Amino acid sequence: MSTALFVSPHLDDVAFSCGGTLSALKAKGWTVALVTVFTRSVREPRGFALECQTAKGLGPEVDYMALRREEDRVFAQRLGVDLTVWGELEEAPHRGYASAEALFRPPRLDDAIEAAVARCLRPVLWELKPDRVFVPQALGSHVDHVQVVRAVQGLGIPSNRVLYYRDMPYAVRQPDAKPDAAVPPGLGALMVDITEHLERKVEGCACYGTQLAFQFGGEEGVAPLLKAFHEREAEAHGRTGAAEVFLTEAVS
Questions:
Q1: Distance linking the first and last C-alpha atoms of the chain
Q2: Within 13 Å of residue 24, how many CA atoms lie on the same side as its CB?
Q3: Predicted confidence (pLDDT) per residue in 110-121, tens digit
Q4: What is the 3-state secondary structure (H, E, C) of 16-36?
Q5: Which of 10, 16, 112, 127: CA 20 to 30 A from 34?
Q6: Mean pLDDT value across residues 53-58
Q7: What contacts 238, CB < 8 A, 6 or more positions away?
Q8: Quick check: 86 pLDDT over 80?
C-alpha cells in the first residue's frame, strides 16, 4: 500500500491547496497522512496575534488554535485521513511578526523556527517512509510557508518523491507569484485531474469555518472560487474538467 504525506503550514493549507488530490489518492487506496506544523495554542495572545482572531469575530477568551484544530479534526474525518499530526509550533504572529505586512516579508533574522520545523517533520517521515510528500511552493511568500519549504530541503527526502503544491488562496490572489527560492529549479508541472473530487474538496474546505469569510467571502463563495480556479488550471494544461497542478522532478 502506498503512502502520501501532506505537509501543511497552517490548519487549512492542504485542504485549500490540494484537498482534491488528497481525496483522489484516498479513493485509490493510498494511506493518507496530514501533518500541520504551526498549531500551538498561546495563552493570552496580544497585539497583532490577538487581532488575527478578533478580526474573525472571536473574543480574546477563545482558544483560537484549539478551535482550528477541531476544524482540522472534522476535515480529516470527513476526507478519511488516516493519520493527523499537529506540530507544537507557534504561528508567525506569536514569533514577533507584528503586522500583516510583516507576514509577507523575508523571515526575520531572529526567527529560528526552520530548525524546529525540521524536528517536527523528521519523526513523521521516519515512521511513515512516504512514497509521496506534498509541500507548499510558498506562493505569496507567507513567512510560515517559506520556513516550511526551506526546512523540507534538509530532511533528506528523495527529490523524486516531493511534489510542491500551489498555495491557495495566494495562487488566485497573485496569479503571477513565483515559488520560493528553496523550491529546486527545473521542475516540471504535473497535473492531477480532480474533476470527480472537486465536490469533496469543497466539502473539506467548508470544515474550516473560522477562515471562510476571510478567505472566500463566506461559505457560499468556496465552491464558485474553487471551481473557476481548478477549471482554469486544467485549461492551462490543455485539459477539460478541474485540476490541481504540482511542481515535481518526476516529470521534468
A1: 26
A2: 15
A3: 999 999 999 999
A4: HHHHHHHHHHHHCCCEEEEEE
A5: 112
A6: 91
A7: none
A8: yes
Q: Which three cell numbers stand for residue 215?
A: 478567505
The three grid cell numbers given for residue 181, joined into one nine-digit string: 527560492
Percent of the chain with pLDDT over 70: 99
pLDDT confidence of residue 1: 84
The pLDDT of residue 252 is 46
Closest by CA position to 50, among listed 102, 87, 91 = 91
Q: Measure the CA–CA gap between 195 and 137, rounded to whole angstroms.
A: 23
Is the CB of residue 37 less than 8 Å from the CB of residue 146? Answer: no
Pairwise CA distance, residues 85 & 8, whole Å: 10
Q: What's the CA gap between 198 and 207, in Å, rounded?
A: 15
Alpha helices in the chain (DSSP H): 13-27, 47-54, 64-79, 113-128, 143-152, 170-173, 198-205, 209-216, 222-236
3-state DSSP of 45-70: CCHHHHHHHHCCCCCCCCCHHHHHHH
Instruction: Name beta bridge partners: 85.
Output: 35
Q: What is the C-alpha separation between 62 and 43, in angstroms, rounded? A: 10
224's CB contacts (< 8 A; 6+ apart) are none
Kindly tell me if the per-residue pLDDT of 183 is higher than 60: yes
Residue 126 pLDDT more than 70? Answer: yes
Answer whether 71's CB lies under 8 Å from 208's CB: yes
Entry pTM: 0.97
Sequence-distant (≥ 6) Cβ neighbours of residue 8 within 8 angstroms = 14, 15, 34, 35, 36, 37
Across 160-184, average pLDDT:
96
Q: What single letter denotes the amino acid at residue 229?
A: F
